[in-house]
Design a protein that fits this description.
Elements: E1 6-12, H1 20-33, E2 38-44, H2 56-59, E3 63-64, E4 70-71, H3 74-82, E5 91-93, H4 94-107, H5 117-135, E6 140-145, H6 155-168, E7 173-180, H7 193-204, E8 211-216, H8 222-232, E9 239-243, H9 251-257, H10 260-267, H11 277-288, E10 296-303, H12 313-325, E11 329-336, E12 352-355, H13 364-376, E13 381-384, H14 386-398, E14 406-407, E15 417-421, E16 436-444, H15 449-454, E17 458-465, E18 467-469, H16 474-479, E19 483-488, E20 493-498, E21 505-508, H17 523-533
Bound molecules: glutamine.
Glutamine is lined by residues 357-359, 385-386, 409, 464-467.
């Protein structure tokens, strides 16, 4: 099955963490700005079925899609750059491919054959990619292959990509290889040997890159570029410098200035570009809103996985989106809730406090105290998921007088389970993919903070949780002054909590961070940062 879609395959060399996701997103953005219908796929060659069961400290955040996928955080990059939702099928893992092949084998679809990596696994990979291209009627599909060339896990995927080039023709497929040119000190020479080796490794498995995107701390100099061109067999104009930038949003412009769009269009035989200045004006005004922000808002982010910035990458971005919209630089201090006991007063130096999602007992007490501190001291507070739940626990303890109020996730034997398992979760055994996931409808009451910021009686927000507010306590909480202004499933679940007369106290059971985009901050983040900056 051939498609009309053109493909850009992005591979990585030398080491992980080079920003392949940003390169892929930036290329996709440039093509979108050139009026192409684009989307991105992330291949993750690991054996997990999806990212849902992985520890955010080791792997970075789990990004939740509208359709309930628990995906690699690169999907979030694609959504934010392209300002479009990406379906979960766009995150392909080894487990998904192998299970589909094994299921087909059991159904007897390969009767008579010995089922092998080539062709059965590689065919399944190619089908998955082509189906997306076809179903979504894409002009260009960017496919980023996770991991580093030479990894055992990624071999079947790279082999499938190699075959696709043969089948589709070289005018339809471009291979971009992302590598690193390190320099050992600030003024030092940029070293090209790791890149040379990595290209050799790629060629060994039959892939000749068309374009090189070279990560480096400062502009890739001419001699390094020449060397890379010579050893990689890629012409000099096709070697692109991806040097450090103040904001990742400036990377599309950086690549554009080096002529990448012309190079891609020439290779694809697409000539006669339409006038795209209106697209660029809009994008540039968004990018510019992120630079040279002078006023600062200091925000404390109190959570569990603060040791790795990537664990809350969407929350960080959402805060920055909100800041840029109102012309403020949001300075975020990540505070480990486990280390907060006894030093809660240090939170008074911040203009706002945000508590992002989290799981399990560790660090929960620090979060409960944080939520209470924000309420008592009238500090703007935004609690997301776990931050919503533990704000309810804090309210139960300190306002309603339920001294042992808790979530059964933290203390299964509490007398006052104000947060408890969703009823449908009680009999679930498998941990993978079994939370309440994805975008669900929420009703918002009129004349509430929730309504004021969403300006709508119905919203759709992404979820990822097993626990929820226990309705048994609804009346008590209401009489004590906590207002649940948003709910779902005919009031079966509480979704938004707020405290009237507080400067800004909002808890949301959903994850607003996943739908925040540059230029279009999610409403609760914008309102939170506005409240914090006027505090
Ligand atoms: N651990 C809580 C739950 O499962 C909150 C989850 C979250 O913050 N994403 O309901």
């Amino acid at each position: 099955m051939q498609t009309e879609t053109r493909y850009i395959f992005v591979t990585g060399g030398v080491m992980s963490g080079l920003g392949k996701g940003v390169v892929s997103s930036s290329i996709a953005k440039l093509l979108q700005l050139s009026n192409q219908k684009v989307s991105c796929i992330k291949i993750d060659p690991y054996l997990n079925y999806d990212a849902g069961t992985m520890n955010p400290i080791a792997h970075g955040e789990v990004f939740v899609t509208d359709d309930g996928g628990e995906c690699d955080m690169d999907i979030g990059n694609y959504e934010r750059f392209l300002n479009q939702s990406i379906p979960k099928t766009h995150n392909i893992t080894t487990a998904q491919i192998y299970s589909s092949v094994i299921e087909s084998e059991r159904r007897g679809e390969y009767l008579g054959a010995c089922v092998q990596i080539i062709p059965h696994v590689t065919d399944a990979i190619k089908d998955r990619i082509r189906n997306i291209a076809k179903n979504e009627n894409l002009d260009v599909l960017v496919v980023e292959c996770g991991g580093t060339v030479g990894d055992i896990e990624s071999l079947p995927f790279l082999e499938a990509l190699r075959q696709m080039r043969l089948e589709e023709g070289s005018d339809k497929i471009i291979f971009v290889h992302v590598t690193l040119a390190p320099s050992l000190d600030v003024v030092g020479e940029q070293k090209t040997k790791p890149t040379q080796h990595s290209v050799q490794e790629l060629r060994r498995i039959g892939i000749q890159p068309d374009l090189m995107a070279v990560r480096c701390s400062r502009l890739l100099d001419t001699s390094a570029k020449r060397k890379i061109s010579l050893f990689s067999n890629v012409s000099e104009k096709d070697v692109f410098s991806c040097h450090d930038a103040e904001s990742i949003l400036t990377v599309p412009q950086m690549l554009y200035d080096q002529g990448i769009v012309d190079v891609i269009f020439k290779k694809f035989g697409k000539v006669g570009l339409v006038n795209t200045s209106a697209n660029w004006d809009k994008w540039n005004s968004i990018v510019n809103s992120f630079v040279n922000l002078k006023d600062q808002v200091r925000i404390a982010m109190v959570g569990k996985y603060v040791k790795l910035a990537d664990s809350y990458v969407s929350v960080n971005h959402a805060l920055k989106h909100a800041g840029a919209k109102i012309g403020k630089n949001v300075a975020i201090d990540w505070i480990d809730s486990e280390e907060l006991n006894g030093s809660i007063d240090k939170l008074s130096q911040y203009q706002g406090i945000i508590v992002p999602g989290g799981f399990g007992e560790r660090g929960a007490e620090g979060i409960i105290k944080t939520a209470n501190f924000a309420r008592e001291k009238n500090v703007p507070y935004l609690g997301i998921c776990f931050g919503f739940q533990l704000a309810a626990v804090a309210f139960g303890r300190y306002v309603c007088g339920l001294s042992d109020a808790n979530s059964t996730e933290i203390n299964p034997n509490t007398e006052n389970p104000v947060i408890d398992l969703l009823p449908e979760q009680k009999f679930i055994e498998n941990k993978g993919g079994s939370l309440r996931l994805g975008a669900n409808e929420i009703k918002v009451d009129d004349s509430t903070l929730g309504f004021k910021l969403y300006k709508s009686a119905t919203i759709f927000k992404r979820h990822r949780h097993r626990y929820e507010f226990n309705q048994k306590y609804l009346e008590l909480f209401n009489t004590k002054g906590l207002r649940f202004s948003g709910y779902s499933d005919n009031k079966k679940r509480m979704e938004i909590l707020e405290i009237p007369n507080h400067k800004f106290y909002l808890g949301v059971q959903f994850h607003p961070e996943f739908s925040s985009r540059p230029g279009y901050p999610e409403e609760s983040f914008e309102a939170f940062i506005r409240a914090a900056s006027s505090a």
